Amino acid sequence: MAAGPPLPEHPELRAVAEALEKAGISGEILDAQWCLVFISSEEARIVGIEPAEVDRFYGKGLPRRQLEDAEYWATSDDSSREWWKLNVPMMRASLEPDDDAFEAVFGPLAKAAAGVEPGELIRAWSSIHSFPDLETLRTSWLGDTAFLDLRINNDAGEFIGVLRLASPDAPDSLLARMARGNRAMYERMDAVRQPARRPASILFADLEGSGELSRRLSSRAYFELVGNLTDLIDSQVIRHGGIVGKHAGDGASALFLVEQLGHSESEAASAAIRAARAIRDGASHIGPDDVVVRVNVGVHWGGTLMVGQVATGGRLEVTALGDEMNEAARIESAAKGGVALASKLLLERLGLAESAELGLDPDAMTYATIGELDGSNEKATRDAGSISVTAI
Question: CA 341, CA 178: separation in Å to the nearest integer?
Answer without folding.
Answer: 34
